[in-house]
Amino acid sequence: MDKIFDTIVIGAGQSGLACGYYLRKAKLKFLLLDKQSEPGGAWLHAWDSLTLFSPADYSSLPGWPMPKTEQKFPLRLQVVDYLMKYEQHYQLPIQRGVEVTHILKDNGIFHIHTSKGIFQAKTVISATGTWGNPYIPNIKGIDKFSGIQLHSAHYKSPDNFKGLKTLVVGEGNSGAQIVAEVSKVTEVKWSTKKEPQFLPDDVDGYYLFNVASARYRAEKEGRPFDASAYNLGNIVMVPPVKEARERGVLTSSGSFTELYDQGVIWENGQQEQFDTIIWCTGFGYDTKHLRTVVTLDERGSTETIESKSTTTDGLWLVGYGNWTGYASGTLIGLNRSTKQTVQEIEFFLNS
Ligand code: FAD
């Protein structure tokens, strides 16, 4: 493998594909590597009923719009289908089934070590998302619990929970959506540290994108961001969540301090038995393949200015969330972030 690419993108989920669009436009010599054998990134693994927060009109990658769907919010498999067709449409060069294990840099060239050999490139974009790094807090007694525990990353459908008293932990969208559907088949309690913050019914993910954009503009212009002008809830009232609220199941039972073999001990000291705990407690960043070129903190993040590494020349990180560009964790937000990233790469290669 003596070919040296201008850029290698690690990960061909939505973030990697958006980078591919701009790299192709810039006529750079590039390649995307992905460890999965099929297109779709994290959307391949999410639970069966997951939908986008935003209508198709507001969920497009650069260039080729997501087709309109019959229902307001596109379904998970419609997103997978869109991503598959997007990479075919732009004939993006992707090698699948290639896992990047680590990277070394020598004389200005990155040596990307993978399960299929070593690739070389002048620049690297890491776009590996968060799904591979689910986070579960290390709460006292967690090892003592004898029931079933799983993270939302591995939750597929309510079918396996029938008759099992279930505790769902976490106040975000995953928690609300999983409470909504598991509570249809069994008794569920919802544990949250803070009171869940619901957005108004007529607000969708596009609103969150606009809030993130306003914050971004304010910071760029050195102005304070007036958060009071916005309703900063975070739970989008997609139809199943609205329906669950109407059934009265979306109320928090508060938080617990520790687990015991049969369940949890609530803050007031009372014990409660559960058969299953579903942790909807978020993700770190799946960046372990970068540990040989940058310092990573315990969540997997590293120092960047927007998407550009501040410590390793020639390295960019895309799609991991606000620290790599505001709203860059969403389909629509990737446009701005990946366009800027590829402009920076062109500048770097030409200087
Ligand atoms: P991923 O989709 O995770 O893709 C990363 C790719 O990198 C994968 O294909 C993986 O195989 C590959 N990879 C990882 N490590 C390696 C390695 N070492 N070597 C080679 N390949 C590797 N987003 C929206 O835009 N709109 C929404 O409405 C929305 N709703 C959501 C609702 C919920 C409840 C949740 C949990 C998420 C939602 N998201 C939404 C977020 C979205 O699912 C993720 O942010 C998105 O999948 C991230 O894309 P990505 O390309 O950065 O990462």
UniProtKB/TrEMBL annotation:
<dbReference type="GO" id="GO:0004497">
    <property type="term" value="F:monooxygenase activity"/>
</dbReference>
<dbReference type="InterPro" id="IPR050982">
    <property type="entry name" value="Auxin_biosynth/cation_transpt"/>
</dbReference>
<protein>
    <submittedName>
        <fullName>NAD(P)/FAD-dependent oxidoreductase</fullName>
    </submittedName>
</protein>
<keyword id="KW-0560">Oxidoreductase</keyword>
<dbReference type="Pfam" id="PF13738">
    <property type="entry name" value="Pyr_redox_3"/>
</dbReference>
<dbReference type="GO" id="GO:0050660">
    <property type="term" value="F:flavin adenine dinucleotide binding"/>
</dbReference>
<dbReference type="InterPro" id="IPR036188">
    <property type="entry name" value="FAD/NAD-bd_sf"/>
</dbReference>
